[in-house]
Amino acid sequence: MSYSFIILCMLAMLISDSSSLNPLAGDVLPQHFQSGEDSATETTIYLISSSSQYDEKVIARIRDAFHLQGYRIDTTWLDQKPTLLGYVNSDEKRAQTLIAALLDDNVKYLWFVRGGAGALNLYPWLYANQHQILASSPKVLIGLSDVTAIHHYINNTVGWPSIHGILASHNQEMHKLDMSEKLSVNNSIHQVFQAIQNGVTYTAIEPMNHSAFAGAQGILSGGNMTLVQSLFSTRYESHYANKVMLLEDVDVSWKQLDRALHQLEYSTTFLPEAVIFGQFYRINAGDFEKERYREVIQSFARRVDYPVYYYPAFGHGATNQPFILAQQSNIACRHGDEYCRLTQPPLAFDLLTKTAIVAAPPVKIRCDMALC
């Protein structure tokens, strides 16, 4: 055996051993990287928070969690000086920061650290600067809860799609760094990018009234029900025609939910193509509590003419599947099946024309969880 052959064998063993020490070795890179759209070193997630104050210590954990998945975190647009009401900053300052981020052409992915309250207060400034924002390059905004107010503005006034999904501080990767974290533990950062690039397919959409079995299609809208209802009868309320509304909430009793759904029923303007209800019960709720919420939704479904569906796999729970807002959705129900199927095509941005476009043909993503 030659000396050079021995050296080559030793080098091969060293390379093999070193891969086991690399926490990213063996991991499949997110499809976002594989597509060739960006490289790992170029993909930057910009963090922002426009609502309630957050724990400053969580930012380091977010940075670590995203870094382990191959993403770079930029905190340029984090500016926290908590107010007496517990917001990250004054209304004006939060609005200025959000507008500056929306005008920043370096930003492509704007991920919210947390929700809470206060985003609705920013509307006067957002609408006053809408022409500037319309002229800026499209961004993908990601989040839920109080972020619903921002989604509504971006979707209906600016015309950009966005992602109703996990917060930067609440997801599967953050759970691995802090086991006490329970919100959105079944959903990963990768899933968000898979939804963006491949579209979504969810097969456990439960029809709740007779109209639902015929299926539905329309532009997906909504999010947190409290925020959606806070826009009723205001100058900022949008039209619901051609909309499939997502509705979820937290810290709402089933009696409060019943009252809120009667308001929807009595509304003369809330007439969407369909409604999909997500999770309303507590994250640690038992079967009895879950059934009470389901009964309230079922009762509402029987009283309205438009299709109503139940899908408690999004919202403030352990499972929070991503959806593409301001994007076409289709719900199909096959005769004899207990559940219907919701699909959305992938999302792409033509950054040269600054126009959101839908890629075709759509390639669907399927989840492997019990509720998908």
Mean pLDDT: 86
Overall radius of gyration: 22 Å
Content-based structural category: alpha/beta
How far is it from the N-terminal to the C-terminal residue, by CA? 57 Å
Helical percentage: 25-40%
The dominant shape is: globular
Total helical elements: 12
- H/E element string? HHEHEHEHHEHEHHEEHEHEHEEEEEE
User: In order across it, which strands form the biggest sheet?
Assistant: 6-10-9-8-7-12-13
Largest sheet: 7 strands, mixed, barrel
As a percent range, the share of strand residues is 15-25%
- Spans where pLDDT lies below 50 across 5 or more residues: 1-41, 351-372
Count all strands and give the number: 15
Assembly status: single chain
Brief synopsis:
With 372 residues, this protein is an alpha/beta fold. The protein has helices at residues 3-21, 31-34, 57-68, 91-103, 123-128, 130-134, 148-158, 172-177, 189-198, 225-230, 254-266, 287-303, and strands at residues 44-48, 72-74, 109-112, 140-143, 162-164, 200-207, 216-224, 243-248, 274-277, 308-310, 323-325, 328-332, 340-344, 347-350, 355-358. Helix 11 (254-266) runs parallel beside helix 12.
Q: Can you offer a commentary on this structure?
A:
- By secondary structure, the chain is α/β, with parallel strands linked by helices.
- Helices cover 33% and strands 19% of the residues.
- The chain has helices at 3-21, 31-34, 57-68, 91-103, 123-128, 130-134, 148-158, 172-177, 189-198, 225-230, 254-266, 287-303; strands at residues 44-48, 72-74, 109-112, 140-143, 162-164, 200-207, 216-224, 243-248, 274-277, 308-310, 323-325, 328-332, 340-344, 347-350, 355-358.
- A seven-stranded mixed β-barrel has the order 6-10-9-8-7-12-13.
- Helix 11 (254-266) packs parallel to helix 12.
- Mean pLDDT is 86; it is low at 1-41 and 351-372.
